[in-house]
Design brief:
phosphatidylinositol-3,4-bisphosphate binding, CRAL-TRIO_dom, Spectrin/alpha-actinin, two-stranded antiparallel ribbon, phosphatidylinositol-5-phosphate binding, CRAL-TRIO domain-containing protein
Length: 672
Amino acid sequence: MSVTNIKNLSTTMLPILKKKLAFLSGGKDRRSGLILTIPLSSDQTSMEELSATLDYLLSIPSEKCKARGFTVIVDGRKSQWNIVKTVVLMLQNVIPAEVSLVCVLKPDEFWDKKVTHFCFWKEKDRLGFEVILVSANKLTRYIEPSQLTDDFGGSLDYDHCDWLNKRLVFEKFTKESTSLLDELSIINDGDKSAAESALLPSFDPETVLQTGHELLSELQQRRFNGSEGGGQGGPAWCPMDEELLAQPQVMKLLDSLREQYTKYQDLCRQRNKRTQLDEIHTKVMQVVTWLQGPGSELLKTQQAIGDSMRAAQTLQQKHEEIESQHSEWFAVYVELNQQIAALLSAGDEEEVVELKALQQQLSDVCYRQAASLESRQNVLQAAQCFHSTTQELSQQLDGLLGMLCADVAPADGASIQQNLKLLEEKLQTVEAGLNSLREKGTLLLEQMCSQPACSPEAPESPVVGQQDNVQQIQSVMEEMQLRKQRCEDMVDVRRLKMLQMVQLFKCEEDALQSVEWLSELLDALLKTHVRLGDDSQETRTMLDKHRKFVDVAQSTYDYGRQLLQATVVLCQSLRCTTRSSGDTLPRLNRVWKQFSVSAEERQQRLELALNFHTIAEQVLQQECVDSESLDEVDSSGKTLLDRLTMPIIFPDGYKYTILDLFFSYFYKNHVK
C-alpha cells in the first residue's frame, strides 16, 4: 500500500470509515472469494464517500486474493431501489473485474419485480457481473452461514470498531516502519556526509519495533486461537489474516527493520565513538591551546619579584588569581583523563594509539604548566622571605644607627659597660640578619634559576629575562652590606669612645682613692706618729720608718697625679669635662702639702731627738761629767723642747700643735 493511502486513512478516510458504509467482514464465498458488504441505510448515502470507502477496502487484499473475485452483498432492506441501482452501477465503475457476484438483499416490502428484473437484465452485459435479488433468509444458498455475519443470519463475528482500531495500528506501523526503513537505509548505505546529516530518523526505532511485535502477537493469537467470539463454537476468524493484512508483510517489515536497526545501532556506536573521540580531541586541544597560549602568557607577564614585602604580597595575590584560572582547566584535564582511560579499555588498536597520543600530549602540557605554576609560587615565597628579611635587617640597622647617633652621657662606668654590651648585641643581631639575608637571596636566585620553561618552543632559562630581578637582589644585598659596614665603623668609634670613658671613670675613681689614701696617711702621721723614741737606737729606727712612710705617701701622690694627668688627656680626647677631675687635683695637692709639712716637721723632730739622745747617752757614760757636757745636753734638750712647742703651720694657715704630748713624754723619759 502506498504512503498516500496511509496518509488518507489518517486524515480523510478515518471519519468515512467510521460510518461503516462498506466493510470486509473476513467471510468468503464458495470460491474462496472475499465477501464485500455494503449496508445501505434509510438515510441518504453519499456516493462519493461510498466510492472512497470501496477504493480503500479494495486496496487492502493482495493481488492473488483479488484474482479470486469478490462477492458483494448490497443490503437494500432499508434503502430505496434507485439508491441500490446507483450502488450496483458504481460497482461496475469501481471494481468491474474483481466482482464475481452481487447479491442485493430485497426488503420485506418487495420492489416492483418487473422493473428491477428488467433493469438488471438490460445492464447485465455492460456490468460484467451477475446481479441477483435475494431475501436475507435465502442468502445461505450462495454463501455459507459461517461466512455471514449475524446481520444476515450467519455466525461470523465482526466488530467494525475493533477492525478499524487494528487497521489504524497496522497502517500506523506500516507507515512508520516503511518510512523508518527508507531513512535507515539512507543512513546505513549512504555516504559519510549523508549519514552525518540524517543520523536521527523521524521515528523512534524501539517504539516502532515494539508496536510491530504487539501487532504481530495480536495477529498470531487471533489466527491460531480464533476470534474473540470464537469461544461460542463458531469457526476461527481473523479480520486481518494473511489474505487481508498479509501477516508475512508485518514479519518481513519487522525483520527488515531489525536488520536495518542493528546496522543503524552499529553505525551510531561508531559514530558516537568517533564523535566522542572528536569531542575529546577538541577539548584536549582547547586545554593545550589555552595552557600554551593565554596561560603561558599570563606566567610570562608575571616575572617580577617586587621591591618590598607589600609588592611581593600583591604579586602573590595576582598569582593566586592565575592559579584559579588554571585550576578550571586542570579540572577539565582530570575529566578528560578519566574519559580517555575509559575509552582505552574498550577501544580498538587504532583508537588506542590516537587516545594514548592525546593523553600523552595533554599530560605533558598540563604537568609542564603545573610545574611552572609551582616554581613561580616558590619564587614568590622566596621573594617574600627575602623582602621580609630585608625589611627586618633595615629596621635593625636603623635601630643600631639611632643608638650610635645618640649622645652618650652615662653616669658611671657600669652604665657604660651596659651600653657597650647592648651595642655589641645589636651588632651581632645585624650580622646574623645579614647572613640570613644572604641565604634568602641565594635561595631566591636558585629558585629563579630552577624555573622550568613555559613551553618546549622556548626552552631557555627564565633567568635570561630576569636580569633586572637578579640585579635587584644583588643590589639589595650590597646595600645592606654597605650599611652594615658603615655601622660597624661607627661601632668601632663608639666602642673606643666608651672604653675611653670607662678608663676615664676608672682614673677618676682611682685618683679619688689616692686622695683618700693620702688623707689616711696624713691622719696617721698626725695622730699616731708622735713618739720620738726612748733612746737613740729607737729614735734612729723610727726615723728610718718615717722615711719609708714618706716614700709610700710620695708614691701615692705621684700615682694620683698620673691618674689625673691621664684624666685630662682622656677628657681632651673625648672633648668633655668631668665633675670630679677639677676638684680632685686641688684636694690631692692640698693633702700632699699638708702631709709634706707634717712629714718634714716629724723628720726634724726625730733628728733633734736623735741628737739629744746621743749627747745624753755620751754624758751618761762618762764617769766624770764636766759642765761643758752638761751645758751641751741642756742646750740640745731646750732646742728639742722649743721645737716641740712650735705648731705645725699648714699652707692654708691652719696650726697644729702636739706640745703637750711631746712635753709630757720628754719629761717623763728624760728630764727626770
